[in-house]
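[Meeting: bench + compute handoff]

Bench side (C.D.) handed over the final construct sequence. Compute side (W.E.) agreed to return the predicted structure before the next meeting so the bench team could plan truncations. Sequence as handed over:
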Amino acid sequence: MIRSMTGFGQAELHADGVRIQVDMKSVNHRYGETVFRMPREWLVYEDKLRKLVGERIKRGRIDVFITATRSGTTASGAEIDWALAAAYKQAADELGKRLEISGQLTIAELLAIPGLVQVHDRLQTERAIEQALVAAVVEAANQLVMMREMEGGHLLVDLRARLEVLQTLAAETSSIAPDAVIQYRNKLRQRIDDLISDSEVIIDEQRLITEVALMAERSNIDEEITRLYSHLSQFNVMLTACEPIGRKLDFLIQEMNREVNTIGSKAGQSDLIKLVVDMKAELEKIREQVQNIE
């Protein structure tokens, strides 16, 4: 299945009070390039994340935007049970009133209450965030790949239709090419007849045959048509490949253009020239589509 090089993917996960959002988009690029924009403290994970993206996307420029939103309870690595603290404070106030004892709870006494403050394991927190970050990047990349495959399906339909048009044009070119030699021979004979109409010069039929044969050899396009058919067949086969084929298709288009240009240089007939122009126009449309294939 062919893939487009344009697409978008998004994912959002939460880990230990941190909301992680990943936005990933890709555009056309000759090679594979991935650019990350994320919090500085997460740059340590960049190489790992780049490898994960590269395993799924081989070609195109991929921009990855990673944002983090933290809750206030996890910023210090500790979480306070405010309800428990309030309950202890209320109980202390009631004891003071009923027993007519003066005094206030100190911070030190509150911190000594079991379970009031839960200190997070920093290493455990970092691992949780790393796992969530990796999972979010993978999910966004998978969504991006799905969109690229969907657009690739549309490209496939268009390319197959244009290849059929090109195949038809090549067949027409092959069928009318022999007529060019016949027309050249008739025109050459007519020109000679016009030149000697008022004289008694005798036409050297052997020389005329030789000249027509030389012209036929110079204008023969059988080899170019054969190679063009071969390239078209390879192109169709590549469209069914399961690997990135954009560069290979681009190379094939260059080869097809070379054959069509050679046919154009040999064409001396207006019908052939028109077909060459049509083939070049169709090849340009195919080339534009191939530029967007991974």
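W.E. noted at the follow-up: The radius of gyration is 38 Å. C.D. will use this when planning the next construct.
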